[in-house]
Amino acid sequence: MTATLTDLTGTWNLDPTHTRLGFVTRHAMVTKVRGSFNDYTGKVTVPAEGVEGATAEVVINASSIDTRNADRDGHLKSNDFFDMENHPEITFHSTTISPNGSGGVDVTGDLTIKGTTKSVTIPFEFEGTATDPFGNLRAGFEGSTVINRSDFGLSWNAALETGGVLVSEKVTLEIELSAIKEA
């Protein structure tokens, strides 16, 4: 079953087993490092009036960061980056959601990382809906946006002897959502 944005009325919960909240950044100016957060909750509520009145919220357990390297993950959890002892959560609360003209939505909201809140806009493609074998109605969205990590107080870096820095300021947030409609 495929739907349009106008068919999404209701409350939708993120399915953490089929959703990816990821990121990618340059390392040593020559390669990319990818990671994700594996523990989070999220909900999107779409009123009968449509997506223009929708709200979205996500709460991420920052210590669930996973870059497939325990030493790097430990450094990211430290005060040099996320300071998880004092800032255990990363949050996003939408302020506006609107159709973007290409069949998807632009979600603008307040992203809070390490105690700093900035407005970000994430354009999402709507991938459609389907009923899974267990009778759950699912909706899929994919989106990405670029943020500057220093804007959120994640400013640690190291100079390279060849010039440049160890970690890029730019971080691309990569989001693949599978949401299940509440009965």
From TrEMBL:
This is Polyisoprenoid-binding protein. It comes from the Bacteria. It holds the Pfam family YceI. SMART domains: YceI (SM00867). Residues 11-180 form the Lipid/polyisoprenoid-binding YceI-like domain. Belongs to the UPF0312 family.
